[in-house]
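Retry 2 of 3 after timeout on previous attempt. Resubmitting structure tokens to design endpoint.
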């Protein structure tokens, strides 16, 4: 089973739900891109995160959970939503899934049963990282290092305005 992201060719990373958390996740996404430069990396998240990360070179593509019919983090969706999401996952054939615990509740279940290996910044990993550093970005970097096996830069790089 593939658990080394450096060997993955199709990676799905579940983006944090809050936009501030997505900003703190940026160094880890940069480290992910550096560790797997040839992989197709898809970010899955809520509309604000997806809009924020459109055209970001750290990700090849972003997919919005609202486009699948899910409206909020705890949404279990309708049977049609679940079927649509499962079909999308089967079609994409990801060979590595990162952070399913940060996905919409129903997608967490689908992602964990998709058959691809999972590397996850679980609440336990996140709490250990927060215990080492009160700084959110530093803690996010430490959590990614533990869960994903990569080191990331100290500060997020953010472009606030596209020109």
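Retry 2 succeeded. Sequence:
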């Amino acid at each position: 089973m593939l658990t080394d992201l450096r060997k993955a060719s199709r990676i799905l990373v579940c983006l944090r739900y809050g936009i501030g958390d997505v900003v703190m996740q940026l160094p880890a996404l940069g480290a992910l891109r550096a560790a797997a430069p040839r992989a197709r990396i898809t970010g899955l998240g809520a509309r604000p995160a997806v809009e924020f990360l459109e055209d970001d070179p750290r990700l090849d593509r972003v997919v919005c959970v609202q486009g699948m019919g899910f409206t909020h983090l705890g949404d279990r969706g309708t049977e049609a939503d679940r079927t649509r999401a499962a079909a999308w996952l089967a079609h994409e054939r990801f060979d590595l899934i990162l952070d399913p615990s940060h996905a919409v509740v129903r997608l967490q279940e689908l992602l964990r049963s998709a058959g691809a290996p999972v590397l996850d910044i679980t609440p336990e990993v996140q709490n250990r990282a927060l215990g080492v550093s009160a700084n959110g970005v530093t803690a996010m970097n430490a959590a990614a290092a533990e869960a994903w096996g990569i080191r990331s830069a100290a500060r997020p790089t953010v472009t606030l305005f596209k020109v």
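Attempt log closed. The chain has a mean pLDDT of 86.
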